[in-house]
Write a structure and sequence with these properties.
Helices cover 40% and strands 12% of the residues. The protein is of the alpha/beta class. Strands 1, 2, 3, 4, 5, 6, 7 and 8 form an 8-stranded mixed β-sheet that branches. The chain is globular and about 55 Å long.
Length: 322
């Protein structure tokens, strides 16, 4: 079980970190938070919980007005353009042990989150104090936290603070390695990649007669398969792409990740005001429009992979005759 809000506040007192506590209703966005504490000055923080393709997790904590481009950040970490995505909601509870809307650097106090990499906006250092949620967004936030005090907390749990210019877009290439590669978790418990499997070519020609098949089989026995040689020459990433779609868990996770990302991007304060009780229907329509093509492509890839692996998918099953 993770630390509670009260346990965190007690820890801050033990570290002699000065803070102020402000009561307000639960908020899900930094825009909603601003309505209650924006008049107090200081820096408001927005916090993104991200994951990469190897199931390593990151918290990006930035000032409200800092623009964070995930594609650029992914490249700077050495993960490629599409290497980062929003972490699924269940990971909030399993890894950070907080609920939706409560992502915060303070979540790293939990043992389950010790492998999460934290990227802090260097803009925090320009503010007299900043606001963060103390593991909960239901009734209060911690205010008057200075960058040096946040550093003290992080060092107390064994984390070295890393401040980054999140709006920078340096060139990444052969002679210019990713500038943030050292912030990729190296001690994380990474799930192993699926075992490599042979890549078979699916023939588009019409089936040959039984005699021709027998002759072809004999010829294949006599000399090494050209397809086998080609499979060895295929890039490793092609093999990984194919094998990842033979696992239903990966297939379902891809769908859930895409859906969660859309829901989170559409759940804004303005959208709630604009659509009110109809927000559910609007979200449903948006998900259908934005995911339709992606899901069709995923389904085709999954179906083709299953066929390639020797399984009969969907329309190829045979009904039992009574």
């Amino acid at each position: 079980m993770g630390n509670s809000k009260d346990q965190l506040l007690a820890r801050l007192l033990e570290l002699r970190i000065d803070f102020s506590k402000y009561e307000h209703p639960a908020v899900l966005t930094v825009e909603a938070q601003e309505k209650y504490v924006g008049h107090l000055g200081g820096g408001l923080s927005k916090n993104l919980f991200l994951k990469d393709k190897k199931h390593r997790f990151y918290i990006v904590s930035a000032l409200k007005d800092t623009k964070v481009d995930l594609k650029v950040l992914s490249q700077r970490l050495g993960l490629g353009k599409g290497g980062l995505r929003m972490a699924p909601e269940e990971a909030l509870g399993e890894i950070l042990q907080v609920s939706l809307g409560c992502v915060t650097p303070f979540a790293l106090v939990n043992e389950s989150a010790r492998h999460v990499s934290l990227l802090l906006d260097q803009g925090f250092k320009t503010k007299e104090f900043c606001f963060f949620h103390p593991l909960s967004n239901d009734t209060s936030i911690v205010g008057a936290i200075k960058a040096c005090d946040l550093d003290k907390f992080l060092k107390s749990i064994g984390k070295e603070p890393s401040y980054v210019d999140l709006e920078a877009n340096p060139t990444v290439g052969k002679d210019q390695p990713p500038d943030l590669a050292n912030l990729v978790p190296s001690d994380a418990l990474v799930l192993p990649d699926p075992p490599e499997k042979s890549v078979f070519s699916v023939s588009t020609e019409k089936p040959a007669s039984v005699d021709k098949k027998s002759s072809a089989a004999a010829a294949q026995t006599a000399k090494p398969s050209n397809n086998a040689q080609k499979a060895k020459e295929k890039p490793a990433n092609s093999i990984h792409l194919l094998s990842s779609f033979t696992d239903p868990g990966h297939f379902v996770e891809e769908i859930l990740d895409k859906t969660s990302a859309i829901v989170l991007s559409e759940m804004t304060e303005d959208a709630i005001k604009q659509h009110g009780e109809h927000l559910g229907a609007v979200l449903s329509d948006t998900i259908r429009k934005r995911l339709s093509l992606d899901l069709k492509n995923l389904a085709v890839i999954y179906k083709n992979t299953a066929y390639t692996e020797g399984f009969h998918a969907g329309t190829y099953h045979q009904r039992k005759h009574i």
